[in-house]
Design a protein that fits this description.
two-stranded parallel ribbon, globular, about 220 residues, Pyruvate-ferredoxin Oxidoreductase, domain 3, alpha/beta, seven-stranded mixed β-sheet
Length: about 220
């Protein structure tokens, strides 16, 4: 099964780490995987984009026009990834960071109530002077899923595991590699820190599980 993914977010949101872990895990599983980072030409702190392809067969081209999964973690990321969306694409966005201009019938995942930023404001303190700009989501997508990854990281776990929550969501949505492979890749990158602080391992695995709980398999 071939999966093509585009991940985009602001600098520092850990998009490239997610993509790298997915590709490394796929390779360890014996699959073909290509990961291409794209930091663009923006000023420091601009939109970071990662392209990932995973396949059971040989991958003939490193580029693809449309993606099966698009993840956008900021308003600018939504606009930058719009070109990779078509009628087969599942579009995932963080609804605690992105204010959708319209909530339509395709919104799913945490379901309409929690995926609607208007209802979410009932449970989170929002400074009126810092309200998020609205952005129109790509209506041509097959599915549009809002997940409150940032709010979960900030309020339930820790801001630093925000990207691990997103990774868990992607893992469950695609089931492209087994959970154990993802954990092995995380251990490879953070094992030294885990050895010094066992609570850090538990925190990351909680974030992974939480992300997986936000969606059903989609691809």
């Amino acid at each position: 099964m071939a999966i093509r993914m585009v991940l985009a977010g602001e600098g520092g949101q850990g998009v490239q780490i997610i993509a790298n872990i997915l590709a490394e895990s796929a390779n360890a599983e014996g699959k073909e995987a290509i990961y291409i980072p794209n930091f663009g030409v923006e000023q420091r702190g601009g939109v970071s984009i990662a392209f990932v392809q995973i396949d059971d067969q040989r991958i003939n081209s490193p580029k693809f026009p449309k993606a099966d999964i698009v993840v956008a973690l900021s308003n600018r990321a939504v606009n930058r990834t719009r070109q990779y969306v078509d009628g087969r694409t599942t579009f995932i966005y963080d609804n605690s960071l992105v204010a959708a201009a319209e909530i339509g019938a395709k919104v799913m995942g945490i379901q309409a109530v929690e995926a609607d930023p208007r209802s979410q404001r009932q449970t989170e303190a929002v400074d009126d002077s810092k309200k998020r700009d609205q952005v129109e989501l790509p209506g041509e997508a097959a599915n549009i899923i809002g997940i409150p990854a940032n709010d979960i990281a900030k309020n339930e776990l820790h801001p630093r595991v925000f990207n691990i929550i997103v990774l868990g969501t992607l893992l469950k949505a695609t089931e492209v590699v087994p959970l154990d492979r993802i954990k092995e890749a995380i251990e490879e990158k953070l094992g030294d820190k885990f050895a010094k602080n066992q609570a850090l391992r538990e925190l990351n695995y909680k974030a992974l599980d939480k992300g997986m709980s936000l969606v059903d398999r989609l691809v």
